[in-house]
Amino acid sequence: MNSENIITLLKLRNLVFQISNENNLKKVTKNNSISLYCGFDPTADSLHIGHLLPLMVLKHFQILGHKPIILIGGATSLIGDPSFKLSERVLNTYNDINNWEKKITAQLSLFLDFNIGENSAKIVNNYHWFCKMDILSFLRKIGKYFSINQMINLESVKNRINRKEKGISFTEFTYSLLQSYDFVVLNNMYQVCLQIGGSDQWGNITSGINLVRKMSQKYVFGLTLPLLTKSDGTKFGKTEDGPIWLDSSKTSPYKFYQFWLNTDDSHVYTFLKWFTLLNYSEILKIEQEGIKFGNIIKDRIFLAKEITNTVHGISGVAAAVRITECLFSGDLNQMTELDFEQLKQDGMPAIDLFGSEDLVTALVISKFALSRSQARNMILSNAISINNKKISKIKYFFSNDDRLFNKFTLLKRGKKNYVLICWV
């Protein structure tokens, strides 16, 4: 058991938003190994970057000798958590959830160790205990401990009740009861004494703490993590194109790397504390030198490499860096066919062209130009490149030499506007 206190470490890295009974939790974790859990509802076939923070916190606990338990919400995902949602979630089928659970379980091994002895991570599914419980048992065993008066004052419920056009269904209203009972079961089965989650889960977590006390006469703890918003006030991790997934088939390593490479300067050192396992003193040194010598760009690249390596490994980082550098320098010779496949997947806009097309047509189809006359003017003004070679000929037809790997052509307008032509 590592002598360093986990709560002190998390607060040092600004990873604590709210915490219940902090002094007692510090005492419990000081010289004892505890079991803790975090719940993940499988509402898609992959985790996304919004899940990174709780996973990193679980990893910190495990490094210091504690036992992390992942609760897969096979039952709760059939209900849908109303927390800070404007409308009711779409109800998923059990078959979908079961398939998604298998994929998510594989991703968890990127962060946690499942074969290191007593503090090996463990995965459990709350469907196993809820599928055996009938409605009368649920109401008599769990429902009697909850006050409607208190439940409607939960932020997640109150916000929805006040939206008259949407409201909240009874199905979603019961979500907090299910999550609370999870804590009771895990406390009884694995002596779990701490639940962690995002700051939007505080109401559900404290409900669980109270239910454990009422049903088992035991005192347990809750800890929530900070919720970071971007400069425009939107939730971190959300983009115009949707979530940044951890599955490379849903978000390519290149796009994943680019997301972190575009981190706002004010967040770089916070993210190093949150999303890497670097020693805190090392991060402070990087931050001090970065501010002193103006190394923020270098440190942002370092951050992007560290996080991409955790999720996609060395090869993922190498590919992302190679694509980035080749596009910046204009030298495409180092790029592989798989690199272009990443660009096709989500790295840049892509269009399909058939047969022998001319450049003017390609510019219109790609929407670089609104008309053929505008396209011709762009070519004459020396603004168009094919595979980073300037083209000044209006009646230009693509040749086989323009097709990289016989499949791709990189079309560029100006310095930063790209479209990938995919030949079919």
- Helix count, per DSSP? 19
For the CA atoms, what is the radius of gyration?
Answer: 26 Å
How does the helix and strand content classify structurally? Answer: alpha/beta
CATH topology of the largest domain: Rossmann fold
In CATH's first tier, which class of the largest domain applies? Answer: Alpha Beta
Query: How much is the average pLDDT?
Result: 91
How much of the residues is beta strand, in percent? Answer: 5-15%
Strand ordering within the main sheet: 1-6-5-2-3-4
Number of strands: 11
CATH superfamily of the largest domain: HUPs
Q: How far apart lie the N and C ends?
A: 59 Å
Low-confidence stretches: 84-88
Name given to the CATH architecture of the largest domain:
3-Layer(aba) Sandwich
Q: Per the principal axes of the C-alpha atoms, what is the gross shape?
A: elongated
Give the total of domains: 3
